[in-house]
Design brief:
The complex is a heterodimer of chains A (about 100) and B (about 400). With about 100 residues, chain A is α+β, with helices and mostly antiparallel strands. Chain A contains 1 helix and 6 strands. The longest helix of chain A is centred in the first third of the chain and has 15 residues. The two termini of chain A are about 25 Å apart. With about 400 residues, chain B is of the alpha+beta class. Among the domains of chain B are: about 80 residues, ACT domain (Alpha-Beta Plaits), CATH 3.30.70.260; about 70 residues, Roll (Ubiquitin-like (UB roll)); about 50 residues, no CATH class; about 70 residues, no CATH class. In chain B, the strands form 5 sheets. A 5-stranded antiparallel beta sheet of chain B has the order 11-9-13-19-18, with helices on one face. Chain B starts with 5 loop residues before the first helix and ends in a 9-residue tail after the last strand. The chains are: A alpha+beta (about 100), B alpha+beta (about 400). Chains A and B meet through strand 3 and strand 5 of A and helix 2 and strand 2 of B.
């Protein structure tokens, strides 16, 4: 019951109030700036981490970031900041 | 450390290297536990991460369970600094002493600058009553505005005062009152002689001169008349110098008994608590028949705080009576000097003794009796209202 009410409220907010859907709760968001910094909001789990590649599980799938000298600038519960030379970002959607 | 944040520094943090963890279990577990981490870097066999000191126990527990090896490469922040400082007590004490010292020294007034007036002493005294003087404590001083008002009240002849307390300096700027011009008296009057004498010079500012040089005048003689020839009455004013004679009778003892120090003395040191002196040093009892005692008191104080203690150095000098006989020539010379000062006491300022004569002198019962005659040039003028006031013309 509750999730449906929530979904309905979310849809109403999106359509009528024109609030961007990413600001409302569970969906994750990724911001990439100048190819050396990626901020991932609402991530679920860190799967692997090395200076060449890291995999992060989000709600809808897995994000794979490849590059050189990658490192985690900071991790807080809502947000993961990756820095380094990013070469490729690959999304694999949950089937 | 690329960035520095105060909250992290206060909590304290460690940079640690994790060995023996190829699957990065520790990192994943900590991220899953929503621990704040930053600057996580991985290399071949290890990875490093920064964690706050309050979250460190989690890492330690995990490492112990899963047999990882941790190596702390950096420990930073206030908690570590405090532990470190505990080993350097003298340094810490020095730092505290410096801060306290600086605070204490800055709570004194070091400089008081008074400008805009020539009566600096007077202003400084008034300021001292308000606790403003070099060495006074700043917190005893009122607010600037209150000081200004109090100063205005205490010093009647200033029209404005600005007080600026700037750190440990106090600047006082004063604008003195300019006294209004005195109104000239214009009531009709004469200048008359106050004592008998022979007129030497007459300088009249206003009125008609009614005596000539060399004229003998008696008290009450009009010297400068306020009544002009045409019947007008004016405010006579001027200066009339005349030669006046004085007789002075003197009695001078020729033998004088003086106290003279013999050079022997005894020193006593007292500590005075309240009003009670306690003898601390110098217990010898003075064996002198005649003595004279002088005391020097010094109030003890720590900085500006006066203690109720006084250090008293009291010295007992031996004294003997010495009789000296004065030769009569010397006695006569000093007699003339006495006569001069006696005459000067009776005459107005600016008088001058022109001549002196010893009319008679005799020695009797060890005393010298003298009569001295002095000729003095002095101002004899004295204002006197006119008996019959006619019409005043200004």
């Amino acid at each position: 019951m509750k999730p449906t009410v929530r979904k309905w409220a979310q849809r109403m907010a999106e359509e009528w109030l024109e609030v961007p859907s990413t600001t409302l709760g569970a969906s994750s968001r990724m911001v990439i700036s100048s190819m050396n910094r990626a901020v991932i909001e609402n991530f679920h789990e860190l799967l692997t981490f090395s200076s060449e590649q890291m995999r992060i599980r989000v709600k809808d799938g897995i994000i794979t970031i490849s590059g050189h000298g990658l490192f985690i600038r900071s991790v807080v519960p809502e947000e993961l900041v990756v820095e380094g030379a990013i070469i490729q970002i690959h999304f694999s959607v949950n089937s | 450390m690329a960035f520095f944040r105060l909250s992290e520094w206060i909590k304290g943090y460690v940079e640690m290297e994790v060995w023996n963890d190829p699957e990065q279990e520790l990192l994943k577990k900590m991220v899953a536990d929503k621990v704040y981490l930053w600057d996580v870097r991985s290399s071949d066999a290890t990875y490093t991460l920064n964690v706050l000191l309050p979250d460190l126990h989690l890492a330690l527990e995990l490492a112990r369970c899963m047999r990882f090896k941790l190596r702390f490469s950096e420990k930073k922040g206030l908690p570590f600094w405090l532990v470190h400082a505990r080993k350097r007590k003298v340094f810490l004490f020095g730092a505290a002493f410096f801060v306290v010292g600086l605070y204490m020294l800055s709570s004194f007034i070091w400089r008081v600058e008074i400008s805009g007036t020539n009566e600096i002493e007077e202003v400084a005294n008034a300021l001292e009553k308000l606790n403003i003087y070099p060495g006074s404590l700043l917190y005893r001083v009122l607010e600037q505005d209150d000081v200004q008002l109090a100063l205005l009240e205490q010093l009647p002849n200033i029209s404005w005062v600005g007080v600026k307390i700037q750190g440990t300096s106090v600047f006082v700027r004063i604008i003195p009152k300019i006294a209004p011009a005195e109104r000239k008296a214009n009531h009709p009057q004469n200048i008359v002689a106050s004592v008998p004498g022979v007129v030497a010079t007459v300088l009249a500012n206003n009125g008609k001169v009614s005596v000539k040089q060399g004229e003998y005048v008696t008290p009450g003689t009009v010297l400068i008349s306020g009544e002009l020839d045409n019947g007008q009455a004016v405010h006579a004013d001027g200066k009339v110098q005349a030669i006046v004679w004085y007789r002075t009778e003197l009695k001078l003892p020729l033998e004088r008994v003086n106290d003279q120090y013999t050079g022997q003395f005894i020193r006593h040191d007292y500590l005075v608590i309240g009003n009670m002196p306690i003898l601390l040093w110098g217990f010898a009892h003075p064996p002198y028949r005649l003595s004279h005692t002088t005391s020097v008191d010094e109030t003890l104080h720590i900085g500006p705080v006066h203690l109720p203690l006084t250090w008293r150095i009291s010295t007992v000098y031996e004294v003997q009576k010495v009789t000296t006989a004065l030769p009569s020539a010397k006695a006569m010379a000093s007699g003339l000097r006495f006569a001069t000062s006696e005459v000067m006491r009776m005459t107005p300022d600016g008088s001058k003794v022109i001549r002196q004569n010893i009319l008679q002198h005799k020695l009797e019962h060890g005393n010298l009796y003298m009569t001295v005659w002095s000729e003095v040039l002095q101002d004899i003028g004295k204002p006197q209202g006119m008996p019959s006031v006619k019409k005043v013309v200004s």
